[in-house]
Amino acid sequence: xxxxxxxxxxxxxxxxxxxxxxxxxxxxxxxxxxxxxxxxxxxxxxxxxxxxxxxxxxxxxxxxxxxxxxxxxxxxxxxxxxxxxxxxxxxxxxxxxxxxxxxxxxxxxxxxxxxxxxxxxxxxxxxxxxxxxxxxxxxxxxxxxxxxxxxxxxxxxxxxxxxxxxxxxxxxxxxxxxxxxxxxxxxxxxxxxxxxxxxxxxxxxxxxxxxxxxxxxxxxxxxxxxxxxxxxxxxxxxxxxxxxxxxxxxxxxxxxxxxxxxxxxxxxxxxxxxxxxxxxxxxxxxxxxxxxxxxxxxxxxxxxxxxxxxxxxxxxxxxxxxxxxxxxxxxxxxxxxxxxxxxxxxxxxxxxxxxxxxxxxxxxxxxxxxxxxxxxxxxxxxxxxxxxxxx
Length: 391
Prior knowledge:
With 391 residues, the chain is an alpha/beta fold. It contains 16 helices and 11 strands. The chain is rod-shaped. It starts with 7 loop residues before the first strand and ends with a helix.
């Protein structure tokens, strides 16, 4: 505001303002933060010998002044109305350019905030103090919720607990166990994460131990638990990642696919878990996740049954498993995982004495090499070949 020139500017642009409102603003700026009564404004801006409707003229001047400043009576930033008393300039005054502004500059430091602003500041300070107290004392578990949820969870080792079978048929246990095996296998192929073996986790099937207890016994940072539900040729998996030491949920999601796309479904779950625990995928991992092939539903069914029987590790069950694997291969001749399973059966039959070692390992090697012809990046096939060569 330039009092001498009678100009009001915003960012160098002149704001149109009539003489009377300008004079009212001048008086208010001379006493920032103080109440200027209506009578004081009348005596300074409306001479005694002027015959006008003072109340209407002052109201009009204030309205034009607020319009020029972009202010409002309901939510004032500059001019506050005190009913039946007068007005107060509540904005910050650094100084007014011109003679009348010198006085305003002297008083601006003492009254730059209105009572309303002081009340707001007091309320904010009180709220901050209250929030600080609640946080410090952990009232209503405030600190636990805030810090716990924002804390970065570092997981470098995992245990995949047996997935729960939600199908109405208890004979579908082989299916949920097979999906558990597949998820363990998929995660175990990620080089930057430690995954507990199936043998170690199956003893926790239908256990009543708490997750922190299981995590402590297995010495893992995180636990995956979930469910499998099969309805016809549709498969649905729900999985959740839990921080072992705190029993805190980190992530959860559900996935559903057609049975022939079950490999893509398994990879999708494994990829989501890897992403959640910030595992860096190698180019090989990315390629494997992107190239999951479709399966014949009948062949996959036989494969799961075969794995279920093979895991019982007795002669009769292993022979039954070998039969299932052979049937799966007959349906899908490019089913590399089924060839690996058949090789594992031959090795197991040699171990339990049901098949001569030379014959068993010869057939096992033949099946494994066939699996590698189909998929030379299949980790299970390389592991089986290593066992065969070691013996």
